[in-house]
Amino acid sequence: MVLYFSGTGNSQFVAIQLAEIIKDEVVSINSYLKNGKRGSFQSEKPLVFVAPTYSWRMPKVVEQWILAADFQGNRNTYFILTCGDSCGNAAVYAEKLCVKKGLQFCGLSPVLMPENYLAMFPTPSEAECLRIVEKSKPCVAALAGQIQSAEPFNPLSVSFAGKLESGPVNPLFYRFFVQDKGFTVSDDCISCKKCAQRCPLNNVELKSGKPVWKGHCTHCMACIGGCPTKAIEYKSKSKGQHRHYIMNDSLCWGNGGRDH
User: Fold this and answer.
1) How far is CA 163 from CA 73, 82, 191, 241, in A?
2) 3-state per-residue secondary structure call for the chain
3) Which of 108, 119, 178, 222 could lock 91 by a disulfide, CB 3.0 to 4.6 Å apart?
4) Pairing state of beta strands 2-4 and 40-43?
5) pLDDT of residue 86
6) Cα angle vertex 204, ends 201, 210, to 5°?
7) pLDDT digits (tens, 9 = 90+) for 221-247
8) Is the CATH number of domain 2-173 3.40.50?
9) First CA to last CA across the chain, in angstroms?
10) Predicted structure pTM score
C-alpha cells in the first residue's frame, strides 16, 4: 500500500508512479486529514509512505497521522521523501516512528523533485522543473524494484550538518518559520476557492470572496502553488518566482490545473 501526502503534487506524482510499477493501491493522506479521519488499513504488501521533506524530516502532520492511524497486515515499512536538495538525517526519525508504531523499518530514500518551497528558497524554471521530474523516474523505478524484492533501501550517508538540520534545527524551523501570517492575496484573485479546496488542513477559507488563513498552516504551499492567477504571495519571498503544480503526470505552470 502506497500512502502519500502532497502539497503541490511532487509526492503525489512519485506515489502514483511507484504504485503503478509495484501494482499496489495508492492512498491520499491529504483526504484523510481534510476529513478529520485517522484511517484504518489492511495491507498484505509493505507500507510505503511518500511525503515531502519539511526541514530535513518527514512533515509533522504526517508523523502524527501515522501514529493515530491503524495498520494491520504487513509490517514492513518504507519511506520516500521528495526534496529539492537533501532530507538530512530524516531516516533516523522515521525509524523511531516505526518503533513507536510497531512497524518494521525498511529504510528511507530521497527522490529529488522541483523545489516548491518558495516561502524560503528559489524555485527552478519551467524547463528545469521538467528536467528534474523526468530525471526522477528512473530513481522511482529503482526504489520500486527494491520494494518488490523485499530489499531494504540503501542506508544514507549523513553529514554533521544534516544531523543538525534534522535535529535541533527542525523544531526551531517550525517555531519561527512555519506560520501563515505572511500570506497575502491581490486583486487578481477570482474567488475560485481552489486554495481552500486544496488545503489539507482546512486552514484556508474565503471571506468576502478572498482567502484568509486561520493559523494552523503546515507550509505545504498547496494554496500558492495551485492558484490559477498567481494572486497569492508569501511576503516578498515568492514574488517573481516560478511556481508549479503537478496533477498525476501533468505539470501545471501557475494556472492551478485540476483539483487533487
Assistant:
1) 33, 18, 43, 30
2) CEEECCCCCHHHHHHHHHHHHHCCCEEEHHHHHHCCCCCEEEECCCEEEEEECECCECCHHHHHHHHHCEEEECCEEEEEEEECCCCCCHHHHHHHHHHHHCCEEEEEEEEECCCCCCCCCCCCCHHHHHHHHHHHHHHHHHHHHHHHCCCCCCCCCCCHHHHHHHHHHHHHHHHHCCCCCCEEECCCCCCCCHHHHHCCCCCEEEECCEEEECCCCCCCCHHHHCCCCCCEEECCCCCCCCCEEEECCEEEECCCCCCC
3) 108
4) unpaired
5) 92
6) 170
7) 999 998 999 999 999 999 989 887 886
8) yes
9) 19
10) 0.93
170-186 pLDDT per residue, tens? 999 999 999 999 999 99
Comparing CA positions, the residue from 225, 230, 216, 224 lying closest to residue 180 is 216
The reported pLDDT for the residue numbered 255 is 42
Per-residue confidence band for 71, with pLDDT thresholds at 50, 70 and 90: very high
Domains of the chain, residue spans: 2-173, 183-253
Q: How far apart are CA 141 and CA 164, in angstroms?
A: 31
CA distance 15 to 18: 5
Between β-strands 2-4 and 250-253, what pairing exists: parallel, antiparallel or unpaired?
Answer: unpaired
Q: Which three cell numbers stand for residue 118?
A: 518558495
